[in-house]
């Protein structure tokens, strides 16, 4: 009985003396250095799309936040095209993409808000490709970057702060041929 009482007494004292409370930032000396904004779809490198003319084709892009600290206030970010990065991309990847002509795209709703306590922007920015403006079937490159606004404690992520979109506009529509498909008749009779 004395052994049971000793174990019970030690177990009761454990929550009082056993652990320190978790510190904000997990005890890291500078937790802000781990706070980044990024474009999640940028993971894995170049994203290629084939679009068909005519019309406008839109791709939604969300901004994301990661870090050891929760956002205590809304985070404002901007997504913007940076065509100057095309030559750098080509050199680094031994490729020869031309920059997309500026009249072939727009980025709308590009000022985004990541609400406090969240990790994803509440709405997306839209990259709109104006297919009527493309002049050939060439694949173009569009670098889209993220810029953090109003704070120095969150920075763009090194590897995910730029999204590279490869885009080709096909002038002709793809038509699915259906005339060679057999016609089937559904009968209510079932033979088991």
Structural class: alpha+beta
**Global morphology:** elongated
Radius of gyration: 27 Å
List the quaternary state of the chains.
single chain
Characterize the largest beta sheet: strand count, sense, and whether it forms a barrel.
5 strands, mixed
**Low-pLDDT residue intervals, each spanning 5 or more residues:** 16-22, 174-182
- Order the strands across the largest sheet as they lie in space: 2-11-9-5-7
* Total beta-strand segments: 11
Spell out the helices and strands N to C. Answer: HEEEEEHEEEEEE
Distance between the termini: 73 Å
Kindly state the mean pLDDT as a whole number?
Answer: 81
- The number of distinct helices, counting runs of at least 4 residues, comes to 2
Strand content: 25-35%
Q: What share of the residues lie within helices?
A: 10-25%
Description:
The chain is α+β, with helices and mostly antiparallel strands and 192 residues long. Helix content is 13%, strand content 32%. The strands form 3 sheets. It has a 5-stranded mixed β-sheet with strand order 2-11-9-5-7, with no helix packed on it. Strands 4-1-10 form a 3-stranded mixed β-sheet, with no helix packed on it. It starts with a helix and ends in a 22-residue tail after the last strand. About 8% of the residues have low confidence.
Gist?
This protein is of the alpha+beta class and 192 residues long. It has helices at residues 2-17, 85-93, and strands at residues 36-38, 47-52, 56-61, 64-66, 75-81, 105-108, 111-114, 125-130, 139-149, 155-156, 162-170.
Q: Topology, pairings included?
A:
Layout: H1 2-17, E1 36-38, E2 47-52, E3 56-61, E4 64-66, E5 75-81, H2 85-93, E6 105-108, E7 111-114, E8 125-130, E9 139-149, E10 155-156, E11 162-170
Parallel strand pairs: 1-10, 2-11
Antiparallel strand pairs: 1-4, 3-8, 5-7, 5-9, 6-8, 9-11
């Amino acid at each position: 009985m004395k052994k049971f009482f000793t174990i019970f007494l030690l177990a009761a004292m454990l929550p009082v003396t056993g652990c320190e409370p978790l510190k904000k930032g997990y005890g890291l000396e500078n937790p802000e250095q781990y706070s980044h904004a990024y474009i999640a779809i940028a993971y894995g490198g170049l994203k290629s799309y084939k679009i068909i003319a005519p019309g406008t084709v839109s791709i939604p892009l969300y901004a994301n936040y990661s870090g050891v600290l929760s956002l205590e206030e809304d985070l404002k970010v901007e997504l913007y095209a940076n065509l100057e990065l095309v030559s750098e991309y080509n050199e680094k990847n031994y490729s020869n993409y031309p920059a997309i002509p500026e009249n072939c795209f727009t980025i709308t709703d590009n000022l985004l808000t990541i609400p406090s306590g969240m990790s994803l922007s509440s709405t997306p920015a839209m990259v709109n490709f104006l297919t009527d403006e493309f002049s050939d079937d060439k694949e173009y490159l569009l670098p889209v970057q993220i810029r953090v606004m109003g704070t120095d404690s969150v920075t763009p992520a090194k590897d995910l702060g730029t999204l590279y979109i490869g885009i080709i506009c096909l002038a002709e529509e793809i038509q699915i041929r259906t005339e060679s498909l057999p016609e089937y008749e559904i009968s209510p009779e079932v033979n088991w």
